[in-house]
Structure formats: C-alpha cells, structure tokens
Queue: 2 jobs
Job 1
Amino acid sequence: MEKLPTAHFTLATAGHVDHGKTSLLRALTGVDTDRLKEERERQMTTDLGFAPLIFKGEDDRPEIIAGFIDVPGHGKFLKNMLAGVGGVEIALLVVAADEGPMPQTIQHIKILSLLGVKGVILALSKVDLVGSGSGKKTVEESEEDCRRLLQDYGLALLHCARVNAHSQESVQALKLDIERVLRGLPRGESDLKEQAKALGTKKAGAAFLAVDRVFVKAGYGRVVTGTLLEGELKSGDSVYLTGVGLSAAARVRGLENFGRKLEKALPGQRLAVNLTFKEEVALSRGVIITGSEPQTFGGILAVLQDAEGGKLEHCKLPMQVKIYHGTAEYPAYLRWLDKRQEGGYFAQLAFQAEDGRYRAPVRLQDRFIMRWGETGSDIAGGTVLTGDRPTYLKRHAVAPLLSALAELSYQRALDLVLAEYPRLALQEAELSCFLPSSLEVRSLTKANEIEHLAGHFLSYARFEKLKESVKSAMHKQLAAGQGFVVIESLRTAVCPFLAREVFGEVIAAVLADENMTKQAGLERQGDRIVATTQSGVSAEAAALLALVDEKAILEIKELAILAGLSLRDAKQFLEAFEKREEVFIVAYDFAASAKEIARAHKILGKLWQSKRDISPSDFREAMQISRKYIMALLSFFDDRQVTRRVGNGRMLLKAPKAD
C-alpha cells in the first residue's frame, strides 16, 4: 500500500499569563519553548516559542505533525502574541482551573475570533491545585465560563480536557485527545487518503510564508522560520522577500520541518528556510517570502469588526492605528469609516510611518487585527477587501463594491468596477487590486454580462453601446461619399482612449454582425473599412435617401420609422446627406429632398414677381402641401436669408437659380 502523506497542522497556544501554557507544552512535546535566557530566568514567556508534537502513522493512518507556537500571555507582549497567531487554524486555549478566564484569556479569545480561527481545544490546567470537594465545583464553573466565552465569540470548542502538567497520565490523555481532534478535521485522515494520488499531479500556487524568526546558524548562514500558508516551496527555488522598506531576491538553500530535511514543502508546514543572498539584506520578523513577485499596496479598503462593540463609532478620524497582518506590524492611519448595514464598518486605511508612506504586501481577503488608543488595548478585526483605491472609483460606488467583495460576490464586484471604469476596457492586471490573485477572472465572464477582448474586460452593456456608436459613426462617415472609413479616425471619433487592440476586436464584432454585412456590404481592408456598394454609401443610408426623394418632405421621426432606423441613426445619415446638398433638414424636425427645396424656391420667386408679397396661404395653395410643412419651409428660407418676414407676409431676398 502506498504510504499516505504526512498531515501538517499549526496550533497556537492562548491564555492568560502564568496559566501554564509553556509548562503544558513542555510536558506534551518535551521541548522547552522558552528559548531566551531572560524567559527562563523570569519563568515568563515574552516571545514566540516553537515545538512539534508528532503522531505516528500506520498503513491506513497518516502521520501527523502538529507544530505548536507558544505565545506570550502577558498583555505587555500582545504584539508578539499577534505575530504568532496569524494563519493559525486551531488554538490550544490554556486556562487555570483555579482562576478561570482572566483579562488576557478574554483578549486572546477576541483575537482568535477576529482572525477566523476555526476551533479551540480547551485545556483546564492546574487542576491539581484545586483539590476536591468544593474545589470540584470551581473546575466546573471555570469550564462553564470558558464555554460561554467561546460561544459568545463564535469559536467552536473542539474538545475540553482537565490536565495537570505534572501528571504523565493526564498529559498522555490530552495527547490522545489532540490526535483524535486533528484526525477528525477536514485536512485529517479521511481527506488525506483521497488526496494521496493527486498530490503528485496537482499544480500548486505561489508560495506565501510569513517570517516569525530570523537567526544565523554556523555553517549554514541565514535561516528564517515560519508557517507555509500557501503554495509549495522547494530547495533551490528563487524567492522574493518583501516587508516595510524591503524588497529582495534570494534562493532557498535548504528546508527543514522540525529537524527533518525536506526537498519540497507543502501548505501547513512549519519550516526553517536556509536562504542565500547576492547582497547583504536586513531581515526581521514580519518579512513575507513569496514564490512570485508580490503585489504591494499603499493602503487598503477593509471591513472592520469592533471587538469591543461601538468603540470605533466614537473615534476621531483620521486616527493613527497599528495593523497586524501575518507576523508583521504596520503603522497606519484610519481615514474614514462607514457603518455597514449587515454589521461592522467599511474603512479606508493608509500605511504611513513617521518617515512617510510605504507599501505593504497584504493580500485580498486576508484577515488582520487593528489596535488603537493610548495603551493599544482597543482591538478590532478586519478583512482586506481591496488594495489602493483608484481615483476613478467615486465615493458613491465604493460601498456597493465593498459589499459585493465582503459577500465574496465577485461577479457583482467585477460588474461594478467595469461600470465605473472611464476607459471602458480594463486590463486583467488592473483588476488585481479588487480580485484575489487566485481567482480566475475569465470564469466570471458569463454570457451577456462581461466581454473579454484582447486581454481586457468590459461590461456587456458598454460593449453593445460601443458597437452602436461605432456603427453610427461608420455610417455617417460613409454617407459623406468617400466609400471607406479609416479605422484609426473612427477610433479617434468614438473612443480615443480605448486600446487599439481592443478597438480592433470591436470592429471585428461590428463587421461580424449579420445585419451589417448583408445590408451594408462592408469589409475590412488593412487599416480601412470599405463599403462594397457602388454608390459608396451604406445600404441603409441609400434606402433612407430614396425614401426622402419619394416623400419630398416629411417629419424625420416618420422617415426613421419607415426606414427601420433609430431616430439617432436617421439624423446622422441626413446630416451627412445635407453636407452634400442631397437632403435639407428643415426647421430641425423635417427633412426635404433637394428637388423639393428647389421647387419651393421657384414658387416663392413667382409669387414675389406677381404680388410683391408672399403670404403663407398663397404659398400653401401653390405648393399643395399641408400647413405644417409650409410654415417649416418658410422658417427654413428665413433662416437662410432667402426671405424676410414683413408684417403677415414675406419679401424675397434671393431669386431662385435659372433653369
């Protein structure tokens, strides 16, 4: 039977100072996580410690490596605690049975909840100090208090154990409980059996590891540690390191997982990564290691959840805050808040230190913790929704976009962004500040919703409107009589800001339209669109001209209906014919043929010669058309200074051309 792959889990301890987290881990793993001299002297954890707990596998049971991160419990070292719980799925909450939940217990539970930790294993420690009798009730009360707290903050209680770090039997029972919980989790035994065959063929994404410790090892050089949150990492890989004021390339010289050498690391593994650099680089906790050059942002739009309930509402903005993301701490300014209907707030945050603005390698949909106030005790949790807000995204569009992103409605978010983008077609790379890099944008281009043209995206509604504009402009230019349209001049007239390759796709779509090709007889020849009809104008325009000649004079809207054209297209064609003096637009709303205008001018001449006055009634009797056309024609000739109104009649200023 093929050996099942090892399952890796990262767990963080949580709980109040002196409740026995480090002692319990030492009993469970045999590792003293107080690695610093001052920690051992003071018997208090001040920084992160690390220890593995390995559960052996069998033929049908995979090996499990649980990597523990021991965090400080003292409020003074909350910054270090936050650096240890980023990306953690499960927490081992240690609460002294004789004291129950204390201030840092509650604070840690809030943080775990805000970071989206899936569940908690509760260890009621120091049960040996409680005794029996009335003391037993104290243990039960402590357990009930813990259960209530976890429920209040939406954390699943995976298991509750009562332990004594000095009792081997108690510690062994907790080990078995932890193994049982881990094997029952989604990435546990059953899932691993299904994934065993696929591991060799599944393509992994880019690596993402947040560094929580940096040191130099003799004979090896620079070593960093952290949990691989995404992708895979192999010995020999080229990687990027990014942080505040840092951007550097390196090569992975070697990988270890709690002392075991690896050729390839997978998500969930605690790693020691030996790096080599071409140049000396200053590394520290908070640096991000990625497999591809990471995206960085100077600010973010996020959804915030106030852990304290209502404190954010009373803040004076802008306000200086600290952002904890991964293992890093970023100083920032909270610029504005907008209360969210579903609860919480939408917020804009700008990364800004005392020496100026900088860019941070945060990822969309990542969770973070925000602290503010004089003591930093005020806490909120956030989720990154977008990166830097583009200038074209106006305030009225921000809330609907953030709502869509908060609800993971990426189709709606993409529609909103494309509807706001002034240049119509947005490149896929430009969408990276709104949509996670792991999202396949092309999967969102559903029929009749989004068009994908030459590596750009635009909404279907805008695409259809753009095609109509191109058609109208094309007909107008063709109606001028040249018989062809230069594509670049068409782009300049319709949408000069649109990329040429995208406009080329639009032209292709217009020419592929069945109505266009059959009726207009158009084809692309190099950089031109050529009308293949003999008259040099489109079939639609020619039909409209023939209709005007037939009717002599008619309202434009009636002509449009008879010709089967939109009113806009009909007007554009008529304006083009007017330039060639084949048609005349009369009093804005009517169109008359050149023959009809010439006939009317001659009648005006005859009336003036015989009566030295032109009355509307005489003109109507001579023309034999309705009064509305007569008044329109008289207004037309007045505007062209052919006639001038005198009293109730008119005088002739320009004689008609002789036959």
Job 2
Amino acid sequence: MKKMTHILKSILAAGCLCAASSCDKPATALPIPETEQTPAQSPAAAREKTILRSRLIGRWYPRASYDLSVEIDGFLKNVPDTPREPIMALIMPHAGYRYSGQIAAHAARQIQDKAYRRVIVIGPSHSQPMKNFCSVPDVTHYETPLGQVPLDVELIEKLRARGDFFQCIPEAHVWEHSVQVQVPFLQHMLKDFTLVPILTGHLDEKTTRAIADILKQEMDNETLLVISSDFTHYGASYGFIPFTTDIPANIEKLDMSVFDPIRRKDLSGLYRQLDVSRATVCGRCPLGILLAMLPRDAKIHLLKYDTSGRITGDWSASVSYLAAAVTGLWAPDRPPAPKQNTVVRPAPAAKPTLNPEDKEKLLRLARISIEFWLTNRSKPSPNEVWNELTPGMQQTLGAFVTLKKNGALRGCIGEIIPHREVYKAVIEHAINAAAFDRRFAPLRKEELDAVEIEISALLPPRAVDSYRDIEIGRHGIVLKKGGRQAVFLPQVAAEQGWTLEETLSQLAMKAGLPPDGWKQNAEFMVFEAIVFHEGDE
C-alpha cells in the first residue's frame, strides 16, 4: 500500500508538459529561452533538473551577485527596526529595484532572521491572457545572480492535479516579472527554502475563493505567502487619467481607498472598489486570493507607500508601490487537510464506457480546443468551446491526447490519475499536445488539417506485484525505479510489435535507465484505456 501511494504521488501531474506519451522518442527541452536542463542534484521531483533563469538580470536589478546584495542591503538599512511577529504573508511591489526596491525592503525586513521552509509567491500575469485559472511552472529551480532556488515540485504537481484552476503555461513564467522580481529579496533574507511560483489570470470572485480554498489547505506556519502587486498606474501610457489636478494627493487617495478593504480583509469590497474606481491595480486577483485565504484573526499592517512619480518627479506617468505585512498564524484556523496518501483504486462497479456519440464529440472537442488555442493563444473555458455534454463525457477518467501527422507522432500529453470529467482533461491536453509537448515544435495553424487526433480515456491505475502481471495490448504501464519513471499507453507495444520484454526495455530507456533496468527493484503500475481516433467507424 505504501509503495503504491509513493508511485501515485510521483505521477499525479503527468498532464502538463510531462514526458509520458505513446512514443519512445526521448524528451527534449522546451523551446523557451533561458531554460537549462542538467542532471538532477536531488530527488526533489524524481525528474530532470530544469532551471528558469531570470530575464530581469541587468535590467530590473544588478547583474552581479555582489552588486545585487549591496543594493538590497542599502534598501534594508533605511528600514526602521520594527519587525512584527508572527508574519504569515507579505504584500510587495514588483517594479525595477530603482523604483520599488526601497518599498519592497520594508516588507522583506519583516522576515529577516526568520525560518520558512517554503514560500508561495502569487503574482499577476501581465502578458499571457488567462481566464479563471492560474499557471504554475514546469521547472525544478529558479535562478538569479544570488543562486538557484529549488521549487516545491511536489506541491506544484499536486496543484496541477487538482484540475482546471492550476494549469501550466510555460511562456507565461519565462517572461513574467511579477514573481521573478521577488526572488532575490527572498534569497537575501532567508536561508533554505523552496519556492512555489503562481501566476494568476483574470479571476472572478467565485474562482478566486475556490483557488484560495485549495491553497489554504497547504498552508502551515512554516510557509510564507507573498502577494506581488503594484497599485495605481496613472497616465496616458496606462490609459488611466481620472484626474488632472492635484495628482499626487489624488493618486494616494485612490490607492488608500483600495487598501481599505484589503486592511479589512473584505474580498467583495475590494473587487467592488476596483470596479467602481477603475483603479489600475495589476495584482487585483493575487490580492483577492490573499483575502479569501486569511483566518479571521489575521491583521494586515501598512508598512510603506510611495510612487514612481515622487521618486522621478514625473507625474505624467506614475506607478504606486505599497508594502504590507500580515500577522497571525495559518494553523489555528486551517480546516482539516484531506487525507494524504489515499490510494486511487479501480471502481468495483462496472468499468466506465464511452459510446460512439461520446467518442465522436470528444474528438470534435479536442480539435475545436486546438483551433481556439491557435487563434487566441489562450486555453478556453469549457463553455467557450462546448455546450453539448453527454453523460459519458462527464465521467471521471484520465486522458491522453495523441496527435499524428502522416502517421508520425506530432504530440502526446495527458494525465494518468482520473480526477475530473474527461471532457475537461481532453480540452487541456489537446492544447498541451499541440503546443507544449517538449519533444516537438508547437503545432502551426496550417498543420492542423493534416493532423489526426487520437484520445485514450484512462481507467484508474493499480499496482502489480510483478512485471509478469502485465498484459501487452491491454495494459498501459508505469515503470518507476530510483527516482526515475516513464509511461507507455496500452497501444504502444501493439503498434510497435514488441514483446513484453522488449516493451519494458524500451520503457526503461525512456525513463533514463539501462535497457535491463526493469529487471530488478523496479515498481510497476498498470491501467486500461478506451482508445479511439478520428476516422473510426
């Protein structure tokens, strides 16, 4: 039981950008700049080490580690020695350090000499449009001039496995500054910690509360929450000129009218005030998540406020910066966490089935979802692309979407563990297979007509005692050994004409093991699939 649970925890996020597919072609790095792959230095995620290097170096803060440390120390020297305890969360600005660094230091000063094992940073996505979901990255480390920070990959995978609210849009993290700019301050103030970067799209209040409920289950008093937000963006360049006289005073009045519901922990009030005032506060949704997460006895303290208009003397374009600390404890008000290590078992009742109508509609849904992505460069919500749900489409099943062009694999990504309606998994992984399979360049719009779509709807996996229990042609296989793992869908061996031994040798090599690595000390899980593709009668 314990062994099976360990395997399940390792594969919960086989969906976004995973290497699991119906092909034995080795995975390669995503075609995204500033990302490096090296052999893993720890078993943190039982996976290749992948590094996201900050693109802010030399522009938003100094390039050299010494110069960066000196600049942060200079900011900290100007902060009064009035730390508050215990600190459960911070609100920090995210502009270049010449503008907002001194304000951010007032927040960072509150965690000096404190020990946190994990920091969750939530910032807005400025350039990647996302609606009612967040994105978490698919790397293991973030790097700045001050070194590398390991990500809490286990929690990130757990969040991605929760379904629609946490997805993975890789390019959003590469280009987004709202989280990256906080990392040097955290490195400077803390010793050893893991990082969980989260980027929000535009969230309605219902979704904000749902995401907050999920994150609150993961909070403890050794976890720090950092909310990244600038406040009012004033000027023609921001399309926001609500007043033209007494600009400094009016900007501050507007910012404080937004901070008031934050101080009162009033999420609905915050969203109302932002809607009425049209204040251009980029961290609206991260701030909303914070307010929805906080226990009743938490207190929010304004630490420092300033504007770029005052700093530069140019009020024609001004951005406001605010630092705040949240005091209290997460644990006393935390609802009981759901039981961990719960083994997913096959349903004892009859196996789920998909009738011809279900299959035809799921295939159409996959193609429409890819078309939406290629046109809009964003993942659609289900109601944007489909409103003809059958009962079969609403069954809880795992799903892989495979794309083939002229009979050759063009992309394949999915999730093994069933945790949501299969139609939702198909929407997400059709797009992932087209755009985010690290082995292939993203699908081009002109290629789509030549692509054939195949869907594998997966039943829950189960552990087997020996490889001898695996049936070629019936079972998909998960192999795990020594921190490495790989997956084949049931149809792979049959398509290649492999025997069981040949299949396991290929699977071992896919996992980065020797061809005979499956013969000793390997663990296996199997699953069954309903496989169908375009052109089926």
